Amino acid sequence: MGETLYTTTAQSQKPEQVNLARHFAELLHGCYVERGNRSIETLLHELGTDMLLVCGERVTLYRDKQEFFFHPSMAVVRIKRLLSGDHDVLIEQSGVQPGDTVVDCTLGLGADAIVFSHAVGKTGRVIGVEANPILAALVRYGMQTEVTTIPEVDAAMRRIHVHQGDHWAFLQSLPDRSVDIVYFDPMFRKTVQDSASIAPLRVIAERAPLRMEAIEEAKRVARKAVVLKERRKSGEFQRLGFPPPERRSGSVTYAKIELT
To answer: Which terms in the Gene Ontology molecular function aspect does this entry carry (predicted)?
Structure first.
């Protein structure tokens, strides 16, 4: 990861926070430090770093004087709409069904994976693949602990399996036609650059463009479809061998390679 990741607790330093901070330090090959009464700013200065993971009431990443913590964000709104009988563009365009197995190759903050998990239900499965170890750890922990006002959102989060690693390598490890849908949202790298709310992720988030080899592996692994979310005029659909998007309106759209 380059620089050392330091972990600590809130100033109250409850035993469970100490245990969690030590867990993250071990998981991410970082270093646990006692918080004491020091402020975040003081601790960062004394450690000579600009990145700190604080395990308090929630797990928060501090980076470049900004902070980030996991939240299901728009997944809550989207699932509420589905529960009220409305449609969701991703679910509609992907063709996902209850009981399906979905691999989200670009997990990011996990909003799409949560909506997929709700759609496939208890009999389905969603695997989210995230390349960056810090982001994967934060999202994995958040998926298992975050509580919202919507029980269906909480249940959907708990069912997601987060795999940390390169999505191409992960796809190569899967048998032929072993999942139903493989999904890519490389737009996350652009979102990270543009959004102030997740600015601490700019240095750690994966920003490399999708490889054609990964798309080929996805086609081998999927039974139903490979789905790509992108900006309509990005040129990525054509570069990666996807048909023109069916949904023409809006700057963001989806295309899929159907395999059945």
So the answer is: rRNA (guanine-N2-)-methyltransferase activity
Residue 1 is assigned to a structural domain of this protein? no
Q: Are residues 63 and 115 in the same domain?
A: no
List, in order, residues 6 or more apart from 227 with CB less than 8 Å away: 93, 94, 181, 182, 183, 184, 254, 255, 256
Q: Scanning the structure block, which residue is given the tokens 């589905």?
A: 82
Q: Are residues 134 and 220 in the same domain?
A: yes
Residues of the chain with pLDDT under 50: 1
Query: Under DSSP, is residue 226 helix (H, G, I), strand (E, B) or coil?
Result: strand
DSSP 32-52: E---TT--HHHHHHHHT-SEE
pTM greater than 0.90: yes
3 class by beta-carbon count within 10 Å (0-12 exposed, 13-18 middle, 19+ buried): exposed
